[in-house]
């Protein structure tokens, strides 16, 4: 029927409500997407957390998935499902644009930067053990292969979106070997992209400078190892109003998963209070990734128009609208 199948992981807590907004807005916009619901409730197989095979098959078949929040256990239990998904599909680049929303005031105006986070290794390798009682070792794994892969992606991405400046963010001053390898690889990859300017910055300095004045980062794509990207992307989200407003895409060679980075907010789940913007903006990144630019632009303009008006916005943004009222306002703009 000329439609693209996309796997939909609605997620926990507020996941189903915000997914409903995406579905309603997409169908009102005539976006040629057919959703294939996918259940990723973990199964334990041979002591390992795995996701059901049908779900893996669905995502592999469809190449793209949209994902709501999945609850992550803290300090115990199974490996985070979010991480399992990234690993299962080798989603090596995590793209996190951070752009101020017109109409939503924060102390920072006109933020418009992009973070690209290595998404498969670093401190997220999950290699930890007790050496002796009271002494624990966690391995930070950095390989040239994974570094090069995400760096090449970042340079290409920078060229493609017309921000031909890449900055590697690192801590090679201290992590001389691991971050040193990442930084050396960045310098090597830079040679293959003569049209992209390259420089580097130490992470703590990036944080200081960004919260002081983020505008010098507007023409840049920042690329960094996994944990730094996790932390810095939350900080950047803070500059524009929080995780309710920032999209994210996990990109791999075989498939890609677009997701909201915020949590499942169990305290407000099922009450129709959740803000679906982050998942919506992620779904727009997904449309762009699929080459469906017209639908992406149309939906994006409608969302930005509603946010700019500031009348029908959810409680987290200072409004009184229910999730579905916000979605309906977006649909009216379409
Ligand atoms: C993120 C999240 C995840 C991470 C959690 C939920 C595993 O914080 O996507 O940034 O740490 O990567
Ligand atoms: Mn995070």
State Rg: 20 Å
| H/E element order | EHEEEHEHEEEEHEHEHEHEEHHH
Work out the helix count.
10
Q: Please tell me what the overall shape is.
A: globular
Description:
With 334 residues, the protein is α/β, with parallel strands linked by helices. It is built from ten helices and 14 strands. The strands form three sheets. Strands 2-1-5-14-13-6-7-12-10-11 form a ten-stranded mixed β-sheet, with helices on both faces. It has a two-stranded antiparallel sheet with strand order 3-4. Strands 8-9 form a two-stranded antiparallel sheet. Helix 1 links the parallel strand 1 and strand 2 (33-37). The protein is globular and about 55 Å long. The two termini are 23 Å apart. The mean pLDDT is 96. Bound molecules: 3-isopropylmalic acid and manganese (II) ion.
Write a short abstract of this structure.
With 334 residues, the protein is an alpha/beta fold. It has helices at 15-28, 53-62, 81-88, 144-160, 178-191, 203-212, 226-240, 277-289, 293-309, 323-333, and strands at residues 4-9, 33-37, 43-45, 48-50, 64-67, 93-99, 112-118, 128-132, 135-138, 165-170, 197-202, 221-224, 249-251, 256-259.
